[in-house]
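re: that chain from earlier
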Amino acid sequence: TWPEASAKERKTWLEALRPDARADDLPFLRKIFEEISENQPSGKTEWRPVLHQLLLSIPESGRGQALFEAHLRHYFTVPKKKTLRLFGKKTEIGLKTPDQPAQALTPERVYGEWGFPPKSGDGRFHFALSETAYWLRVLLPFVPPSAWCGHWGYDAAGCVRGFCENPEFRFENAAGTFRFFLEPLAEATRRYGDAAFAQALFQHAPPNEPALLPLAPLVSSAEVEAYFTRCEPQFAAEHLHELTAHLPRWSARLSALLLRQLAQALAAAPYHSFRFDVWLPNWHPTTPDTVEAATPKNIQDYQLGTLHQRLFGPVRWSVDLQEKLMAFEKM
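^ sequence. v structure.
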């Protein structure tokens, strides 16, 4: 039982809850937290950080909102006007230093008490972030997105634009533009199931962002289609397996759009870079007219022909194309 368990056993039990922690676990976790708060208010145990992260990860615990009120909101300026202005060098929102020491985040709290990984050991872009920006990036996924509406006075679309378009919240290098609050905001949106923020992200976030794909179930198929229309064909081809994992059924319009983008990407990519078998079951049945319109016309499109054959069954290919397809199947 828990009282007789060693510190190592307690940590193992709590770690086992990580992937599936939900509201049903709250009574047990809160009881443990109250116990250590009474008996070891400042004590350090190897399982205490795991407990903190578990409570943060469950939206119903209220810990995310408490974290926002106690610390995160004090790092972001509040606009004087309630109209979002992001054009030019001067913006209405930004980062600042908390006014009171108790409001500030510290290494002892973030790395020690809460157990998050140090900045140097996590993420390909984190070396370019200040330690404060890294702390905010790590903690933002646990904050309910609606908290930012109350803090800034914007709706969901305004908050998303603030995080995505503000020059203070991004930097650029040879690898591209890195918006260091976009991914954690998308994760918070998924965790809290916030449909308004999901829609705002699909409408206002920049194209080619894999972080948005887990939010597909929260928006309409039309929103997903509109977003992929803005994306490059290569992005669609490379992330179809992720879309499959999060969106089991595709509409006919979305299927047709992704098929066209895949055809464009296949013209410049090797066949082994795509996993047809992973996302084929998601494909919506398409009309024969669509099949004929995308029928391969030369050797560069023979992979697409194989794809069609597996999607729609036998199609009247030319004799020459059938020979090429049979050769491809034997590879």
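The chain has a mean pLDDT of 75.
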